[in-house]
Amino acid sequence: MATLDRLRFRQKLVFEGTKTIAPAELMKRLKTLHAELAEMDQEKVDVRSLDSVTRSLISSTLLEHKDNGVQIHTACCLADIMRLYAPEAPYDEEELRTIFEFFLSQLAHLAQSNSDYFQLYFYLLESLSNVKSVVLVVDLNHPEQLVTEFFRLFFDIIRPDQSRNLQLYMVDVLHQLVEETPTVPQEVVDIILAQFLKKRQTANPTAYQLACDLCNAATDRLQKYICQYFTDVIVNAGKASSGSTSGSSGDPHFTADQLSEFKTAHYLIKELNRACPGLLLNVIPQLEEELTLDAVQLRTLATSVLGDMIAERGHALVRRYPTAWKAWIQRKADKNHAVRALWVELAIHLYRAQPQLGRELNEAIHAKVTDPDEKVRLAVARGLAQLDLDTLTYSPLDPEILVQLGHRCRDKKSSPRQEAIKALSHIFDLAYPSLETRDPIAVARFGWIPSVLFNTFYANDLDTLVMVERALTETVFQPSATLTDEQRTRRLLIVVALLDDRARKAFMGFLNRQLNTSREMNLFLDLCEKYNAAEDPQGADGQGVLNNLNYVIRLITSKLPDARKHADHLLSFAKMHDVRLHKMIRDAMSPQLGHKAIRKSQREAVKRLESLSPTLADTFTILIRRVSLTVVNRSTITETAGTGAAGSDTASAAQWTPAKLAETAHILLKHIATVFPEMYKSHVTELFALVRNDSATAGDDDTEQGQTASLKTVADFAKAFPTEVPTDRAIIQRLVQIALSDSVAPVAAKYAASVLAHADSPAATAAVTQILDQLVPNLAPIGSDADAEVLRPCWAHLKVLGQFALFRSGQFAPYTDRVVSFVQQNFLRAELTTTANATPTVATPAATPVRPSRQRSRTVATSAAAIDRANAALPVLKLLDSWITPVPTTTSAADAPTDPEPVSTPNPVRSFRRLTAAQCLLKLATQDRYESLLGSQHVERLSGVVQDPCYPVRLSYTTKLIGYLNSLRIPHRFLASLFLVAPDTEAAIKLTVRSFVKRQLQAPNMRDRFATLYETTITRLIHLLAHRPDYDETSAALNALSRYIDFYLDLVANDDNVSLIFHMAAQLKTVTDRSTMPPNPTSAAQTLKASQPIYVLSDMAQYLIQEKCHAHQWTLLSYPGSDRPPRDLFVPIENDEVLSQIAKRSFLPPDFTRDRSGVSHNHHYHHSSGGTGGGASATPRRGAGTGPGLRGEVTRQRKSASRTAAAAGSESEASGSDGEGDSDAETGRRKRRRPRRRPSDASERGFGRSKMARAAEGMTTPSRRNAPRRAKADGEVRYHQSSDSDSNVEED
């Protein structure tokens, strides 16, 4: 048997009594003892030899010694004794408690890594870990305090600068305590979880790592305690959820402390999932249960936590907890919008964090894009904007979701609309590098975005307009100021190349709006300077300038949201008189400056304005951005022209090949020349080089289009700056060559002639004479069977002659007779014959069999009117008038136009000819000298084109008519024909008219200048209906005609103007139809017979107006004004007896009122003395409104009507909701405007001169005249709605 080692140390460590050992000697003895004990092997030591030092080491003299060295050496010796005696300790329970408390006091010094005894402290910790003597703590009675102190101490003293071994020993010691203790104290759990709080992680990240290591090492042991912690929190929350509630929502009421505790607990769950997910084995099912609690706060927290956990652990978590995943997915339909919005953000994030789960989310995200609540739709837009390009391109994200996001650009609510616009522009910016390289996936997924953004302009919403303008100018076109001119221009061309036809028109409108706003801004700045330069601002001159200034301000703010606020800002700006700021703004919108100069002026103007008056910054940031030429400018011209010249290869289906970009460049250059011709002043040489270098030939469509675009650009420049056209011989001769050529496109020849016609130089004059001398004598007769090749050069030459007739009339005069004779012999009197048996009914421009005849029609329509303004006008008008009627519609032989064509003329030719003739008549109507030749019968026949059997004809004509009306170029007597689209089966036409009318009614400028235009138009509409070929006085026929008036009322009528509309309809019974009135009527019968259709329709209109008032609970009052039907259509009745007979008689057939009453739930209508009849005894006064009357009926109905109206109003308020938001931002009730009176003679002619032009000339604008406020009179009638009636109004 081996001999056991015995302790050789024999010195005393303590003495009995008061005798002490000097600290230095004591330290020496303890060092000797520690060295010997450390060398001893546990298996080879005779523990009996240790008895003396074992008792001495626990002496209070050593444990409480003042010297730190003595204490730590004592602790190390005790640790060695524990090691040598293991597994049984040589101390009783109290002594062990004292020893471990002493150990804790020594281990606290581990925080001081620079201590002289640090290695001994480390030795002590190492011994506790390796020997596992710390587990003796759990054998003590009530060990919770000691165990807790170990945890608290270690988490307090651990530092980032400590060695990893030391940290691992700490983890081991704590792990032993967790594993061996019967019950982990709750305070220990709290200490561990506290390390996962964000504040603690930031303050001591090493303690956080210690907690992570401990939790991962003791996962199985700590699971139930962690679960119990969160169970207590969630159960308490559940009890509160089922307990007290507050407010009308029924949601549980939580105190601030409770909410804070809930948030902390859920945050800890999220952090534990990130660091040691094994601890949450039983916690995640509790979160799943929490998703179904009534408390919104708890559902929100649970949704957030689970979403973040899924994003971090992804498929593993979903596979392990499938029911929790399904429960989380169901939060997409949570009853609370905040929970749904949060879920959307988290779900969209999963496309990037866990793409393998994306396919399961697509359907849900689809539904949330159109969620009824705007905050959810807003969350979708924000979430998608945060995705990176790879996720957007290659993840399982359904591309249709982005398309649906595009629809949100027209959302009814401003916030989701704005976020959708920002998101799409940001996504396009991310995708642009891929789009530039023609990545097919990127083109398919993101190429449509610019079109969607530009198409939002058609929503006609001012808020949306501002949002889109900002997105386009700051993100889509120029996201970075570091781009070169070449890069910026290429990006512009690529964006324009991506646009569809409708969006491209919107882009051109974007440039036009920039031009118009720039003009208005220049005029505004001029007036500001005049106002501040006035000697007496309060005098006549100053007030005149101020009136003009206020008008221009109204003009500018009519295109801005919150016009009143912006108007105040503009007026405040005008009074600032900062000349330097004025110059900055002018420079920002100068076509003569390049991009860098414009951007610099723009930034400096905004910065200076913010420093001078921050309150004005919002308004002028919008305006300066709108007028600054940052998209197209002088720098753009050079690069665009270079691209146009370089693109000579064949276009392919791929995007932005050189040919595609060249085509886009030509289109862009052409429009810039039209809108901003000043930009070309510094590029005249490059511009006209396009003419000198082109070499298009017949049949080559690509080069023909390029040549035409180039010539159009040059022609627009020459028209704007005649003196800037170069006189270079090569250029002039090239233009002459094009104008005389038989092989170029006719339109190209026209533009070449236009350049020469506008150029102000002797060389151009000589060139015009040369062309006339060669063309006119060689005009040869054309046979009726001429094909396209024969007709093409003749068509081109006539276009050339037309330009000279318009713009070089002096030079053209000697050739007039010869050209007129040629046109009359070869076109006006020639017979058309079909060149093919097929006669399609739609006017297709590409219909080859009828192309020669179709071109002949266009030639006459576009050229004949320009040849001789004095002598040829009437024949041309007669010819065009004969072409616009597919079938004669009048019974009068004198008025019926004669169709010179034989029946064999193909239908496509007739259709196209009608359209061309109608458009030409509209164009002639823009000139006063020709418009006066167009009588009411011409307007009637033109209105028939609105209902042409050929859809392209009526669509094109209606679009053209709206364009002329919108630009105020034709008289408003053409306006009534727009309402004839009422029965059209094609939604596009009705939508176009509806949008135009709504836009006009809401435009402040229109309502200021033509206050009652749309209200008085009902008289012209009734006149058109009375002269329709299908007019009949049967009930069925009148019901058909009522659709037009109903359509008119739906668009125009509202509570404020319905009295005026009713008044105008009633006034038609005080006049006769001028076109059918006998020369000298001698009896009432003659007058009645001549104008009976007018009276029938007047009664019907009044009936329909009252019907609408009943449906919408509008008040129909007597109109106080004196507006009269237009005198160009009607003649006032001077005979009082005739007037009385007409007023007393009801012209409506009984069947009509009976049928309508059945539809309208058999409600009663009451008519005043000027109404539809019904035995009214009074005679209406000429020029006055309808009489009061109905006092008895009013007395009986007034109280009932008031109660019903109030109840209906309450129901309306109670039933309001956000709605899904799928319609345009424009939808909703139309803004009510009171009609304003105007002199009756103002309605007889066109719109007159532009008020802006008068302001520019210094003329004082007339003040706005408002109609008197309507007071409740004795004749007031309120129509109330019965309980079962339907008052829905059709809206866009």
From TrEMBL:
Basic and acidic residues composition-biased segments: 1238-1247, 1271-1283
Record protein name field: Armadillo-type protein
Region (Disordered): 1149-1292
Principal location class: nucleus
Keyword Nucleus tagged: yes
Domain of life per record: Eukaryota
Keywords on record: Cell cycle, Cell division, Mitosis, Nucleus
Biased composition (Low complexity): 1202-1217
GO BP of this protein: cell division; DNA repair; mitotic sister chromatid cohesion
Location in the cell: Nucleus
Assigned GO CC terms: chromatin; nucleus
InterPro entries, per database record: ARM-like (IPR011989), ARM-type_fold (IPR016024), Pds5 (IPR039776)
Species name: Dimargaris cristalligena
